[in-house]
Amino acid sequence: MAKVKLLNYDDTILIHLLRQGSEKAFSELFDKYWESMFDSAFKLLNNRELAQDAVQDVYTDLWKKRYNLKVDSIAGYLHQSIKYKALDQIRKHKIILSDLDYVDHFFESDFADDSVIAQELDTALNDYISQLPDQCQRVFKMSRFENLSNKEIAEQLNISVRTVDNHISKALKFLRPKLEALVAVIAIINF
Question: What's this protein's family per the entry (predicted)?
Fold first, then answer.
């Protein structure tokens, strides 16, 4: 016997059927929105497994709440839910930016299409860097913006390579949490 598809039904009917406990309606909603939700979660998390977990959590919650579901737009509900689940994953797994390369990736992504957002990120980054001690600031800028090697920085500033390493580590330790929060907020706003 062929599997009956409900795809011809609009979301309003699928929500109505879901409220009545229809597994077919749930399955259709899953098939219809899973890929776009995964893409959204992946953009925020940059991790396939965590993105899949976030989507699974949203659908698990949807099934649990099916009898009391009060939504007008299931698409809006699911996509808003995935934002919150992705943020939960960030908090739960304490996702750490491995380096400021993530910020570069952010600037190159769809989120940065808006030049106002890109400018805000740039302004915030410069503000955070200005809060570093002078020598740490100088070393960090030479490393990240002038693309100098640690050895070249050490030679120019007449300090040891180990001191350069320490300054860069100190700067990243200070900047990571600030930038992670900023990127998450801008991603959600621009979602």
Answer: Belongs to the sigma-70 factor family. ECF subfamily.
